[in-house]
Amino acid sequence: MQQDLYVIRSMTRPEFDLALDWAAAEGWNPGLHDAAAFHAADPEGFLIGLLDGQPVAMISAVRYGSGFGFIGFYIVRPNFRGQGYGLQIWNAAMARLAGRTIGLDGVVAQQDNYRKSGFVLAWNNARFEGLGGGPRPADGAIVPLSTLPFDAVVAYDRPFFPDDRRTFLRAWIDQPDAVALGVLQGGHLAGYGMLRPCRSGFKIGPLFADSPALAEHLFVALRAQAPEGAPLFLDIPVPHAAALDLVQRHRMTKGFETARMYTGIAPQLPLKRLYGVTSFELG
């Protein structure tokens, strides 16, 4: 490896689009408009490794609030793997998040490697695929999320994430071509979800709700916003029996799993109300 020619730095904004291209090539199916939201989360938090000026590796090490970070987008171009470029950019990401609890959704088979850096398995997430379309339920309790005070959305979202992600959340739910819906119960927000277009089909994420029935209403309403028969994806925490029941009842088929791992003490997230992960890349 030519150490003197390898440079690691933060990505420029145009390079965020390259990151999504690489993620698509790995089969991760990113959203069409994810880049702006990812950039908003932490503009300096996406690292790229350049060998003689050419990108060969990348990783995200996004800081949230004062005490949490999330690692994603860990990719080395295939013909540069096994040469140490990935380890160097991994170490740079870990250094950037030093002193914080760190989370990631990693390839299940790579758990032992992550354990070497202090990560411990919390649970597995799994991607399920079905079909979009169908009638939207006539339910006055389901409203566009944009009609609700943003502070109410932030407050509802807060227990589902280990630290503040207000800036990211605003950019995420305001993505072009996305549909964000909330469900009300007793006049208060009792769940919300978002559907966004991806390289292939559409993804629902997040999907949070106070009960299985409310999650069902939101899921059906969001699915109806996708074109009839379009691929539809939902990433669920495997230990959540009601989420597993939801995807099975809607005849969604299981794809790959990820290992949700954390350094330090794992955050106590309300998995019983978490029916859809926001993003494998940013948590």
Q: What's the shape? A: globular
Elements, N to C (H/E): EHHEEEHEHEEHHEEEHEHEE
Q: What is the averaged pLDDT score?
A: 94
Largest sheet: 13 strands, mixed
| Low-confidence runs of at least 5 consecutive residues | none
The number of strands is 13
Which percent range fits the helix content?
Answer: 25-40%
Number of helices: 8
Q: Which percent range describes the beta-strand content?
A: 35-45%
Global structural class = alpha+beta
Q: How far is the N terminus from the C terminus?
A: 33 Å
What can you tell me about this protein's structure?
With 283 residues, the chain is of the alpha+beta class. The protein is built from eight helices and 13 strands. It has helices at 13-25, 34-41, 85-96, 111-115, 150-157, 166-173, 212-223, 241-249; strands at residues 6-10, 46-51, 54-64, 68-76, 101-107, 119-131, 142-144, 179-185, 188-197, 202-209, 231-237, 253-263, 274-276. Strands 1, 2, 3, 4, 5, 6, 7, 8, 9, 10, 11, 12 and 13 form a 13-stranded mixed beta sheet that branches. The radius of gyration is 19 Å and the shape is globular. The two termini are 33 Å apart. The mean pLDDT is 94.
